[in-house]
Amino acid sequence: MTRKTVRIAMNGVTGRMGYRQHLVRSLLALRDQGGLALDDGTVLWPEPVLVGRRAPALEALAERHGLEHWTTDLDAVLADPSVDIYFDAQVTSAREEALRKAIAAGKHVYTEKPTATGLDGALELARLAAAAGIKHGVVQDKIFLPGLLKLKRLIDGGFFGRILSVRGEFGYWVFEGDWQEAQRPSWNYRAEDGGGIVVDMFPHWEYVLHELFGRVRSVQALATTHVPQRWDENGKPYDATADDAAYGIFELEGGVVAQINSSWAVRVHRDELVEFQVDGTEGSAVAGLRTCRVQHRSATPKPVWNPDVPATEVFRDQWQEVPDNGEFDNGFKTQWELFLKHVHADAPYHWDLLAGARGVQLAELGLRSSAEGRRLDVPEIQL
Q1: Mean pLDDT throughout 142-149?
Q2: Is the confidence at residue 179, as pLDDT, over 80?
């Protein structure tokens, strides 16, 4: 067995997602399990190099987890030939420039989404990466969730027959920050800082729909700001200039219609923070983060509309739980493993910067659809 150290510059790990999911639950979890074994007997050992703007926060993280290397000098770490991969989990507005630098330095890049603030920038990143001959990947974590993996199993097994529609509900109440601290950073609610639920969530919906049901052909969306004033991390009020809710209808290749509501101004009355209901000619399913329930055609009840009497059926009890039939690892960690194998063993991998550009395109068209009040076609993009 040969152990190969993989040095990964991680920019943005002082943020919630970069720290919890990518550093702790992915790369440090890989170290805890002894590294990532490849088919040839090599074991990849990830060595994070923490990058950011706040030296005290980086130093505290490094000390907490016994890591040796951290820096506030991005240019220096990109110039270091021992660094193999650049990872970006910064705020959206800072991402494109950093990715350009990493590609120019010849680093393989793996990044959160959206990859850029506009489609032109996202496509240029994909073109630059292709020209540089580097490996590149974009985080598309939701398709690795247990609930959606079970849903994919149902699709692959032909459970639904002909799929007719998809209905998604995502969101929760994000406190305004005055009388209770907000659960999300204030920049998420300022358009000038790259915030907004459309630019955040529509890239997710693009790859979920694309991977499971087909390419998005058209979008009609309404984006709005339900809560116009919020309070920042210092307790100061500010105007929320970004959308905090979006209601979208997506037409997919093959005729499937998807409707997805996204909101940070909704109180949860469902089993999980995100749920997708899929209806087909032979059966239906409701998938969340971890669970998936089904109702087959042969077991579908025959409800009768009668508003004059109380409902006697417990509709949720009429669905059957899909078993795990296996163990599910953290979705972020699973995709990190696939990307590392892609970089070091040339394993197949298609969640790249072009896929990331499709997400940026859908967000851009969703905002334009809302502004213009009409349905827009989603052209197929290519390098």
Answers
A1: 97
A2: yes
